[in-house]
Structure formats: C-alpha cells, structure tokens
Write a structure and sequence with these properties.
Blueprint lengths: L7 E11 L2 E7 L12 E4 L2 E8 L3 E6 L1 H6 L10 E6 L18 E11 L2 E7 L13 E4 L2 E8 L3 E6 L1 H6 L10 E5 L2 H11 L13 H6 L3
Antiparallel strand pairs: 1-2, 1-6, 2-5, 3-4, 3-6, 4-5, 7-8, 7-12, 8-11, 9-10, 9-12, 10-11
C-alpha cells in the first residue's frame, strides 16, 4: 500500500523490452533509503517489485497486465517518473490509501491556468467514471489528488505551483497519457452490492414446473 505522496521524481536509465514485458532501470535516491530487494516501489503509481538495487538505482520487471494497463509502456530513456516506497504501519497517512494497481490510462485534454494554480482535465473510459467523486480522491501517476469537477468522461484536478514542481503531472502537456487509480472504497461497495452468494439458476425452455403451473 501507498499514500499517494510522491517522495521523489526518478529518471529512466534503461528499458529492456521482452516478450509482452519490459524491465525498467530507474535512477533515484530517496526511495532507496532502507530499501531491500523485493520491496515495492510505486513507479508512476504502479506497484513494482525491486529486483535489483544499486547505490543510485533500482530495476523492476513489468508483466503484460502492467504493460497493457499503464503508461509505463510509453516511457523513454530520460523520462521522469513519480516514485514512492510502500508504507508501513508507522507511516503518516497524509494522502489516501493507494494500492498501486492502476485501473486505466487517462489522457490530458486541457490545462487551464486559474490564479496561482493550473487545472488539469483528464479523460478516461466512461466505465471508470462511476468511481470518481467530486471532492473525492484520485491517484494520477501515483500522486494523491482531489477531484474538483466532473464531466461525462472527464474530471479535473488543480495543482498549486509547489505541486507542479514536485510531480510529473506538472510537466505534462495536452495529449499526454497518465496512470489513473480510482478510490478503492467505491470498488468494494460495487462488488458487495452486485455479488450473489449463490448463482442464479437460469432455466431455459419448457419444464415440468412450467407445464404444471399452466394446467398441463
């Protein structure tokens, strides 16, 4: 689990493409403090397992599901990525509970200055909009942000100048793709409401029960 509070921006040092997979080598510093092999490090909001640790880098493998769902497949050497090490029970929860399981990619469709801030409007598949709530939380490239407005397939977040400097969203342009993780609570509520303890029996055609009820 993570908090959605980005600890640092790392830099992509190398990308190794495999068959429906990629291996990333990320330059970093802060997330390496106290890190051990096998630890989880959120990279652009995607929970990755550190498979190698160096003095100023870590490497991680990305399986097909990760490649398919996230913008990690779009990375190039030299790109900046948001990084956060997984939390412990002693970690202050300054953002919100983030799993590191990205739902989908979102597309930046507009960036609008508003006073000292900038409003970023993000477009996603409509089926994920049911998990986006005005004044709720959403995770964009691993950063916990507050939803300020909603559209049919879009939502907006606002960044102050400090946040623009500290996370990759502040460097994004219209047309760029970002990772989106919606709030976990909504997904559980939907599952609880729809789940049936016993599968419903689907009866097809004419049965003995049908014949008896209709006088045959």
């Amino acid at each position: 689990m993570f908090t959605g509070l980005v600890e640092e921006m790392g830099e992509v040092l190398a990308i190794e493409n495999g068959e429906k997979s990629i291996k990333l080598k990320i330059k970093c510093k802060k997330v390496l403090e106290g890190a051990k092999l096998g630890d989880s490090i959120a990279t652009n909001g995607t929970c990755l397992t550190a498979t190698e640790l160096g003095s100023n880098f870590f490497t991680a493998d990305c399986m097909y599901e990760t490649v398919k769902r996230t913008n990690l497949k779009r990375l190039k050497v030299g790109d900046k990525v948001n990084l956060e090490k997984s939390i412990t029970l002693a970690t202050p929860l300054g953002g919100h509970l983030v799993t590191g399981d990205v739902d989908c990619e979102g597309k930046v469709v507009s960036i609008t200055p508003e006073g000292i801030a900038k409003i970023y409007e993000i477009e996603i598949e409509r089926k994920y909009m049911k998990y986006i709530v005005e004044k709720g939380r959403v995770t964009l490239d691993g950063a916990s942000l507050t939803v300020m407005k909603l559209g049919d397939t879009t939502f907006g977040v606002s960044l102050i100048p400090h946040t623009q400097e500290m996370i990759t969203l502040g460097k994004r342009r219209v047309g760029d793709y970002i990772n989106v993780e919606t709030d976990l609570i909504g997904k559980y509520i939907e599952r609880f409401m729809k789940f049936q303890d016993e599968p419903s029996e689907k009866k097809e055609g004419i049965t003995m029960e049908f014949l008896l009820k209709n006088g045959f």
